[in-house]
Each structure stands twice: as structure tokens, then as C-alpha cells.
């Protein structure tokens, strides 16, 4: 599944970012977001707007077109 398909409040782990633009990959890496990182979807704006994620206590907005390219897996909440 991809990041853009996840519902608000769900936690996911990044599996693959290979199809994301290199510049976006670099920016995510600079923020500490890489394969294996756990994210939580905080907000999805309407009309194809960006997705707000929480990673390591920081909120980050990602274009929906980029979120469609980030492969993720569900993380069980314990």
C-alpha cells in the first residue's frame, strides 16, 4: 500500500521510497525520514491537497503526488 491510502490516525512504517523524486528523498532524509521510519498520518487536506505526517515528534507536509509514491506497511499499535 502507499502513504496516500492511509487513514488519519494510523501508524505506518516506510518500506520503499525508490520511486520518489531524488530531491524529495534527500529532504526526507535530512528530516530523519527513511526506510524503516514510523509515521503517523495527522491530517489529509481535501481536494488533492497535502498530507500532514508526524515523524519523530515533528509535523511535515508532503504533496499527495509524492505520498502516492511512498510504499508503506501497517504498524500494530501496542
TrEMBL record:
Residues 1-74 form the Ferrous iron transporter FeoA-like domain. SMART domains: FeoA. InterPro entries: Fe-transptr_FeoA-like, FeoA, FeoA_core_dom, Transcriptional_repressor_C. GO terms for molecular function: transition metal ion binding. PANTHER family: FE(2+) TRANSPORT PROTEIN A, FERROUS IRON TRANSPORTER FEOA DOMAIN-CONTAINING PROTEIN. The keyword Iron applies. It comes from the Bacteria. The keyword Iron applies. This is Ferrous iron transport protein A. SUPFAM superfamilies: C-terminal domain of transcriptional repressors. Pfam families: FeoA. Keywords: Iron.
Amino acid at each position: 500500500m502507499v502513504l496516500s491510502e492511509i487513514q488519519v490516525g494510523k501508524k505506518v512504517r516506510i518500506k520503499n521510497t525508490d520511486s520518489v523524486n531524488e530531491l524529495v528523498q534527500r529532504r526526507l532524509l535530512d528530516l530523519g525520514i527513511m526506510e524503516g521510519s514510523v509515521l503517523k498520518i495527522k491530517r489529509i487536506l481535501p481536494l488533492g491537497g497535502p498530507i500532514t505526517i508526524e515523524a519523530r515528534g515533528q509535523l511535515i507536509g508532503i504533496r499527495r503526488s509524492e505520498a502516492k509514491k511512498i510504499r508503506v506497511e501497517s504498524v500494530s499499535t501496542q
